[in-house]
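Note to self: user wants both folds in one dump. Writing first protein now.
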Amino acid sequence: MNDYITIAIPKGRILEESVELFKKIGIDCEELLSKSRKLIFENEAQKMRYMIVRATDVPTYVEYGAADLGIVGKDTLMEQEKDVYEPLDLKFGYCRMMVAEPAGLAKDDDPSRWTNIRIATKYPHVAEKYFAAKGVQIELIKLYGSIELAPLVGLSERIVDLVSTGETLKQNGLVEVETIAEITTRLIVNRASLKTKNSRITEIIQGLEKLV
């Protein structure tokens, strides 16, 4: 099995876009879109193996070599800071990582005067790093569900979260205050695999590079 290339991919929109991209460079993984409950798919003819994993687990599988390649959002990479090689921005799944707060608070608020604030987020590491660079002390509350709820019930005044259209924020009376980063989907590679399977991995990277 050592001659196989293993790719870790999360479910959902990233999976659909990835299958489409791979198809364009001659890699057939349509089976991943089937309703099967399988977690590992193999294409013996092309010596490819695909693992369906949680988005937050992709960098771990790649860092430890259980997968040679992975496809994951930049937000996950920023939060985890795993030791992986990140050769390519795949240019899909665009959104922004934002600081947001209730519209009523934003009217008279001046972010440049923040000194000590409470933030609810799924991205504590990113938030801490961002505000530390600005010299702002923060109290962090880590949540796993709908972050927009936190200001509505007084859990925190502000949130750090991903925003795509901004519609969810708007419906919950929140407004964007600052942009931390622009987020897209990335291709990541295990550092050892890049040496041991260099020609095949380089061929995939170069193929995708021409498309994006």
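First done. Writing the second protein, which came from a different request thread.
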Amino acid sequence: MSDVKNILLVGVGGQGTILASKILSEGLVEAGYDVKMSEIHGMSQRGGNVSTQIRYGKKVYSPIVGKGEADVIVAFEKMEALRWIEYLRDGGKMVINDFEIPSVPILMGQAEYPTEILEELSAKASVLAVKAAEIAQSLGNSKAMNIVLLGALVRAMNVEGVDWKKAVASSVKESFIELNLKAFDAGYNL
């Protein structure tokens, strides 16, 4: 059996998915793991989806996570969680931002945002729903929701021997360090 762990981070362009992935990868490297990361930006600057695949373990040969292989999926938006559920392995975990970003068809009135997404996903997997945008806003800036989700993910992963606060601080602008450290703690302590 492989010791490699598979994580997917999925969201919409502008949510900070890639920054969270880079901080996570940096921390895992610091902990001594071999880490491979792959990111896909599908029209991300126009509100399209963004996905990052991270694999870590003693020796990792590929950054690609196949269907049914993800140990954890972190969804920065609820509909993205629904789109990627087929990548979660049996017994896997989902950390989901309880947050909605309507797609273009929804904004144009051609479709409706799906209801009861969290309930549907909870029937299929272990789900931690996080109101990351609200938590980040209460700290001073809703854009820190990515770091709130990162904190929740790190707690769910239970990886020891990493100075996560150092990884966060070294990855954000100096003027945002304090906010992001508070956001990380808020997510970690959920």
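Dump finished. Worth passing along: The two ends are 31 Å apart (CA to CA).
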